[in-house]
Amino acid sequence: MRGALAEAYLAEHGMPDDTFRALFLSDQVQYKDLWPSLEGQQTILLPATAKACKRHGLKHHQSFRDSLLDVWTNLGGDKKCPECDESLDRVSGYLSNLNPLNPISPRSRLRVSTAIERGTGTVAREMLFTQHTLVDLGTPDNKQFLLFQGVVRIFNPTLESKLMRLLHLNTTLFLGAGRSRGLGQVEIKLETDIPASEPLLERWNKFNAAAQRAGGEAGKRYFSLTLLSHLALRDDLLRPIFGDIKPQHFGLPEGVMWVCHLNSKQPVVFLNAVTVSGWNAALGLPKPDTVALARGSVLLGQCDAAQEQSVLAHLEQIEAKGVGERRNEGFGCVAVCYPIHYTCWR
Ligand SMILES: [Zn+2]
After folding, report:
1. 3-state percent breakdown (helix, strand, coil) of the chain, nearest 5
2. 237, 280, 292, 308: which one has the fewest Cβ atoms less than 10 Å from its Cβ?
3. Which residues pair with 133 in a beta bridge?
4. What is the mean pLDDT of residues 237-254?
5. CA pair distance 290, 270, nearest whole angstrom
6. Residue 183's pLDDT band (boundaries 50, 70, 90)?
7. Cα–Cα distance, 68 to 63 (Å, whole number)
8. Could you tell me how far CA 320 lies from the centroid of its own chain?
9. What pLDDT was estimated at residue 88?
10. How far are the Cα atoms of 124, 277, 292 from residue 2, in angstroms, in the given order?
11. Quick one: CA torsion of 181, 175, 48, 109, rounded to 10 degrees?
12. Residue 164 Cα, ligand 1 centroid: separation in angstroms?
């Protein structure tokens, strides 16, 4: 969406100016990921710790659970689906609602086409290509438009009116690939009062109450970091950071550590890596690939009770500003004590 709006801006103004740079190239505006959603509902991301029936997935509602807080007991591996007694397996995707459980599953279609020879305007020989497209939501008999929701966060209030004007231009915007073939046409609806998520302190308290029930130490405080978008971090030598990630890479103070698995020094982190490619429309060239930790990755941290206030202050900053590189493109969005970890652990 950032790219589409930048294109609309350039179509109107011709050349990049200071406003363009502030809106699209600076850290003053962050364009978060677009998630599939249902009208009027807040989408929930399934983290890497979410599990459901191995055979029937989320269709067996009662099998759904989050396994992060199993770390102190190791009992999670024995859990079975209450509906069919199958074992549980990882599930990914998005939910529109937790209770009753309602997964959002956009229908996709594989399009097969042939390339066109530019010189003759006829079919190019041996140039078959395929393209995965998202079609709509719902079932073939009950189709619904595919909606996405995303947040644009503006740190410089003077830019708000400029962005609003752009959104009200009524130009047709196209997202994704295949735009020259007419794919990805979108209509934007603006909502300015987004329902606030539960305050951090309440989530922290509920998470810690659940962690104590799960077997955490009484003198410790626990928190989870759940990546709501990809996270691109580099060390001092500019190498991407993956498995050796530390709480201090998030800006957390000394003394904060990852929780370790029982009788081991292995940290409790559920990490997936992803390579993000992209297209720079202005240059007409592909962007360099970014290797990042993938959306949905989860890390479990701990600190001493005496450190609680200072850690909370740092965590608040992490949620407010994000972490790592390419934040204006939506990278580095982190949720602390994401509710699914304590409401769906049982
Ligand atoms: Zn089942």
Report:
1. 25, 30, 45
2. 237
3. 109
4. 91
5. 20
6. confident
7. 15
8. 15
9. 94
10. 34, 15, 19
11. -30
12. 47
Task: List the domains of the chain with CATH numbers.
Answer: 49-91 (no CATH), 200-343 (3.30.70)
Specify the amino acid at residue 64.
F
How many other C-beta atoms can be found within 10 angstroms of the C-beta atom of residue 324? Answer: 21
Q: Using CA atoms, how far apart are residues 219 and 168, in angstroms rounded to an integer?
A: 53
Query: What is the identity of the amino acid at 265?
Result: K
pLDDT of residue 118: 84
Task: Say how many Å lie between the CA of residue 78 and the centre of ligand 1.
Answer: 14
Residues with CB under 5 A from ligand 1 (ion): 53, 56, 60, 81, 83-84, 86
Question: Which residue from 236, 235, 331 is spatially nearest to 287, judged by alpha carbons?
Answer: 331
Asked, as a colleague might, if the bond just before 100 is cis with ω within 30 of 0, I would say yes
Ligand 1 centre to CA of 272 (Å) is 26
**Cα-to-centroid distance, 46 and ligand 1 (Å):** 18
> Ligand 1 centre and the CA of 59: distance in Å?
8
Across the chain, mean pLDDT equals 90
Structure tokens at 27: 């850290």
Q: Which two tokens stand for residue 32?
A: 């978060």
Q: Which of 150, 161, 127 minimizes the C-alpha distance to 23?
A: 161
What residues have CB less than 8 Å from 191, skipping those under 6 apart? none
How far is the centre of ligand 1, averaged over its atoms, from the C-alpha of 295 (Å)? 26
